[in-house]
UniProtKB/TrEMBL annotation:
Gene3D superfamilies: Ribonuclease Inhibitor, Toll/interleukin-1 receptor homology (TIR) domain
Residues spanning the membrane: 98-119
Key words, A-Z: Immunity, Inflammatory response, Innate immunity, Leucine-rich repeat, Membrane, Signal, Transmembrane, Transmembrane helix
UniProt subcellular location: Membrane
GO cellular component terms given for this protein: plasma membrane
Tagged with keyword Signal: yes
UniProt protein name: TIR domain-containing protein
Lineage top rank: taxon: Eukaryota
Family the UniProt entry places it in: Belongs to the Toll-like receptor family.
Species assigned in the record: Micrurus corallinus
Amino acid sequence: VFDDLTSLSFLSLQKNMITAIDEKVFGAVFQHLKVLNMASNPFDCTCDSIAWFVSWLISNKTYISNLNNYQCNTPPKYHSNSIAQFDTSICDNAPFKLVFILCTTTVSLLIFIALLVHFEGWRIKFMYTVAVNRVLGIKEIDRQQQQFVFDAYIIHAKKDMKWVFKKFIKLEKKPRVIRFCLEERDFEAGIPKFEAIINSIQKSRKIIFIVTKHLLNDPWCKRFKVYHAIQQAIEQSRDSIILIFRHDIPDYKLKNALCLRRAMFKSRCILEWPVQKERIGAFREQLISALQSNSRII
């Protein structure tokens, strides 16, 4: 109504049954008023209706006609009181907004942290351990200069031993020789098995897990081999593990059994054993690429 009346100097709206005075409606036209008469209107004395108007009355220099007749009609507790007596301090909701913002931010942050820990807790723990090792001076060994005896130590379930030996011996014999550490062939005689496993892992550039249903249920692998392999990777800040899936294992089963997730590893270090024999050559090239990949984490 008043959008084009910004230069208006006199305004009379008495006895017009006006209950509320909104800044959006009257703000522009009130800026240049010299005389205002809005007496004898049934004002609703609430924060939403007249708080802005009362503040304006106090701060402006406009002449207000019949100010004594600017009275509250509602609510009942303010009936017949002058609107100039309305306490606008109760309308200041800044503290409530601040509390609301703080509460909302806190709740959102807690939800975010909970989701982060649930889905990425393993990654946080892993990187934290690596960082602590760096701070304490446990630095990564220069693996490029160190001469390894084996390209990879193979961790597999006892029930998969014959299959692993048969398949991986064949992979070694093709051009661009690969040297795997196989327990039944390469462990030194007369050395306890615990010590032999640790020594073999340290002598190997990478560690290959042959992931099968048998591996997930093999207590010896779960309690010692997998644990030690992961622990060494963490302590030495090395991304040295390669997963080769012989069976289709869901990620949640992998996590529950071995505390591993596919997301912990680079994509080129997660391989699927080919079903078709003609795909073995391509698989071997992928494996060579994974074996030659950089082991540095950070």
